[in-house]
Amino acid sequence: MIRKAQFVVSNTDPTKCPKPDRAEIAFIGRSNVGKSSLINMLTGVKELAKTSQKPGKTQLVNHFMIDDRWYLVDLPGYGFAKVSKDRKEKWEQMISEYLTSRENLCGVFVLIDSRLEPQTIDLEFLNWCGEEDVPFVVAFTKADKQSKSQTDKNVRAFLNKLEDIFGDIPDYFVTSAEKHAGKDQVLSFISELVSE
Ligand code: GTP
Ligand code: MG
Known about the structure:
This is Probable GTP-binding protein EngB. The protein has helices at residues 35-43, 85-101, 120-131, 148-166, 183-194, and strands at 5-11, 23-29, 61-66, 70-74, 105-113, 136-141, 172-174. The chain is α/β, with parallel strands linked by helices. It has one domain: P-loop containing nucleotide triphosphate hydrolases (Rossmann fold), CATH 3.40.50. α3 (120-131) packs across α4. The site of magnesium ion (MG) has 5 residues, from α1.
């Protein structure tokens, strides 16, 4: 369980992130996939990370301090169709710089919408993470939005694609911010990562 969660700072420039003196866990995924909602669910603070029905709400690298012990980072989403080419390139530059140079980063949760069939943009992003040695795991979101069998089907299809790419299946979690599903599993995984 998380006892204390505090907002620290928002940045567009990854070099201005807080001093890397603690373990750090980041959350990323397609715009509107439910990153901020999952963060609020995990921390138990309803409006810690701003959520929105409109994609593209989170536009900065947002650091939160958890239990005075580790940093949690909410990142802006990728794949939002309505952004300009210029903004998209800026996003790619900021995120790739952050993910490849942040020395205290020990885990990145890549969020995947459990309602959808495998999306090329997610697979491409995960492929890039693999190439760059970004330490990622997968969290499927919004599992409450459809039947369990439909969720299982979409999750399985996605995992099959990952197996094709990587030769094995990475760690993954099935979550619902609405129903608090997957909370204990994700938190105990994080707790192990940050105490290594
Ligand atoms: P950006 O910051 O815009 O990239 O979006 P985000 O990935 O942070 O998504 P956000 O948490 O803002 O959620 C987007 C929408 O999905 C909101 O309307 C949420 O209420 C809804 N949502 C997120 N998670 C869940 C979930 O587990 N179940 C249900 N039913 N809705 C969810
Ligand atoms: Mg967000």
